[in-house]
Each structure stands twice: as structure tokens, then as C-alpha cells.
Amino acid sequence: MVLLDAFNPFFAPTYGGREGISPQLERIKDEGTQFDFTYCPATYTISSVPSILTSRFTWEHGAWKETTRLLDTIPTWPEAFRDGGYRTVGFSASTNGSSLFGFDRGFEEFHDLYTQVREGRETVAAEQFLEPLDAVLAAGDERPMFLWLHIVEPHEPYLPPEPFAGMYSDLVDSPITGDAATLWDIRFHKHVPTELELNKLKAEYEDNITYVDTILGTIRERLEAAGVWDEAILMIFSDHGEAFMDHPSPVLAGMGHGSTVYDDQARIPLWVRLPGGQTPAASNLTALASNMDLMPTIADLVGIDPPAEDLRGVSLTPALFDADRSPRTSVVTHSANRMNTKRFLPTLAIRHGDWKYIYTSGNADELYDLAADPDEQRDLLAPAAPPFDADELRRLELLLGWYPDATLRRVMEV
Questions:
Q1: End-to-end Cα distance, the chain
Q2: In this predicted structure, what is the pLDDT of residue 341?
Q3: Would you list the DSSP string of 189-245?
Q4: Is-contact 42 52, C-beta < 8 A?
Q5: C-alpha to C-alpha distance for 70 and 47, rounded to whole angstroms
Q6: What is the C-alpha to C-alpha distance for residues 99 and 6, in angstroms, rounded to an integer?
Q7: What residues form DSSP beta bridges with 244?
Q8: Reported confidence tier of residue 391, pLDDT bands at 50, 70, 90
């Protein structure tokens, strides 16, 4: 399992982004499949990662800000794989995805690589995975392995090493750079970037994508040399997206992540490659998915029992082998105002079919028809919105009836 932190799928060529920036990811997609509509349960790392590892929502697993931890009472998928006879090995280059918050539970080996920082970065660069990964692969353990790689890129800072620095951003004539200080000033309204500056930051983000894509190619070579690639189930995904002020917000200016639940932050990529030459039903799958579904899918494929009952994730295996199957009809994602250190105050989004309903504590609700408005620019609940026709009203009633108000109340009570 390979987590590429803060990956907005719309920048990947296979999702409609700039051609040629990620040939390794395109190769994986050609050999497997891509889920076109995958969401994260939370738009920031410290809450999304434990949701992946437990298939539980934030208000269940307990980790939602930097002073919280994964609750000891919540079982994890790595524990299930370990108990099922797997060697469980994890790597994290992100402080917010590390053992500091209990995310190493169930891993026999967990490497907190974030302690190795290079100049100008708060996290380790992707190439520093290679040497410790080689050691893991050379250990001679004959057990099947569950391998978790949490790579920071393309997450900020948008400062990849040479020769990737400037690969696309040098084409944009602006002196702005995607360093932590600059992005901080934007998020906290000390600097309002021009369109040209935003284009420069987006291009630097693409520099980061090409860098990490190249490292993925090297990781593949190491796995092939170790003789484990052909029989491996591979999932490449993200914990959340990355926004560039397409939806300006009072919270962090709508720049980066963790501030809204619009699709630029809530949608993530998901590529799956099956072992032994198995071919998924289609190269693009339109079934709705959550990254809480990843562990249940792998467990379903290899025959591992779930760590608990009533999990929020479902197996995507039916969709993998039948493109007309959709294991889930809806997804839920949230962001939280972590600047408020006393209470969990969420913005909650529910996507059901093409409808997306957004509930924000203390603000007006929003509703979008993503089939007609994929960029979420026309709020159908806004005062100036045109009236609903009869068919739209029926569909909205189905959505709100399907997702009971009691769930929203429960979130607010927590």
C-alpha cells in the first residue's frame, strides 16, 4: 500500500491532468485499474490515516488534532494482518502519519522516517525510503508481507530536488515559490496570490508529482528484483487532496487541505494492480469508493478476517471484477476546524449518487449536483439558486432520507 500524501487526482494525467508528468502511475493504471470517484473520510492526515488503518470515522477512532491519538480500544487492520500470519512493515515520512499518534499499532516494524530531514523540509524526501526498504526486502522472512509506505510528496513544500525542481514551474514567469513560509502567509491571509502566482504554485506541485512518480519507478524495480512484484496486490492512493483556492475559505484561505470538503480536497486518486496477471473488469471504474475501503478489499482478496464488526469500509472486490457493481452508494468526508482546540467542529459532506450535500457547523448548508456542476460552483441551496424541479426535489428527498439527521447530531454531540 503506497500513500502519496496530499495528491489532488485532477493533476494526474489519468484523471485529466497535464500529460506526461507521471508515467509510472500511468503504467500502473494500464496494468490494473483506476477508481474514478474515490474520497477520503477526512481532508487532513492526522484524521484520514487512522480511518484508513481502522475503517472507522474520526469521531470513532479519536484522532482529529495534534493532541489526540488513535484510541487503544479501536482495533486496526495491521493487527488483523499480523494475527493472520503476515509480516507487517510500515514506513512513514510524515509526522502526522507516525507512531507519535499510535498509527504503528499492529506493525511488527515501523520506520518513522520523518526524523531524517533535509534542508528546507519538515519531512523526509521520497528517495530516503529506498535504503531501509532494501533492508526489509533482504531480511529473508518467508512470510507474506503487508507493506505500508506513507510518502509525503506531492505534499508541500513544493520543492523537489534536482533535476525535478523547475521542470514545469520554470515555464511560469513568477518568483513565488511553494515553500512553507509562503504557503503559510497565503493560508493566514497575509498574502493574496495572483492568478499567475497560483499557476506557478500549481506547476511546482506538478514538479513534486513527477519527482515522486520517478521514485515509485525505483521502488518498483526494487520489488521486482526481490521477486515479490508479480504476486503483489498494489494500491496507490492518498489521504486527502490539495486545493489551490478554487473555493476560497475563511479557514486557511481554501489553500492546501484540511479546510473544506469540496472535491479538490476530498477526492483522491486510487490505482489498483492485482497479482498474477489478474485483470480487473475495466481500466476505469466508476463505483464510489472511500479510502476506508482499501484494507477491507485487500483482506477480502487474501482471506483475512476483519479486526472488528460494523466497520465503515466495504470491500471493493465486487467492482474490481464487475464494472457494473457498486459496493457502496454513498461516501462521507469531513474537515475540522483544528484551530479550535476544545471541540471537534466539522464540516461534513455526503455524496450519494451525483448529489453532494455539505453541512457546516454554524453556516448555511450547501447542495451540488456533481453531474451538472462537477466544479461545485452552483450551490443549489443558495438564495439566488433557481427553484428545484419535481425530479430534483424527489432526488433530494431520497438523499436526505437515506442519511438520517441522527448521524449529523451524533457528530455534533461528539
A1: 31
A2: 44
A3: TS----HHHHHHHHHHHHHHHHHHHHHHHHHHHHHHHTT-STT--EEEE-S---EES
A4: no
A5: 9
A6: 19
A7: 255
A8: low
CA–CA gap between residue 206 and residue 22 (Å, rounded): 9
Per-residue pLDDT reduced to its tens digit, 197-231: 999 999 999 999 999 999 999 999 999 999 999 99
Pinpoint the alpha helices (H) of 86-194: 130-137, 180-187
pLDDT in tens, 282-323: 999 999 999 999 999 999 999 999 999 889 999 999 999 999
Distance CA 139, CA 348 (A): 44
Question: How far apart are the C-alpha atoms of 367 and 360, rounded to whole Å?
Answer: 12
**Sorting pLDDT into bands at 50, 70 and 90, what band is 359?**
confident
DSSP assignments along 351-365, one per residue: EETTEEEEEETTS--
Q: Is residue 262 over pLDDT 50?
A: yes
Residue type, 172: V
Q: Which long-range contacts (CB under 8 A, 24 or more apart) does 94-97 make?
A: 94/5, 94/45, 94/123, 94/150, 94/152, 94/155, 95/122, 95/123, 96/44, 96/45, 96/46, 96/49, 96/66, 97/3, 97/5, 97/45, 97/46, 97/49, 97/150, 97/239
Sign of the torsion formed by the C-alpha atoms of 24, 257, 268 and 411: positive
pLDDT exceeds 90 at position 383: no
What cell does 156 get? 508541500
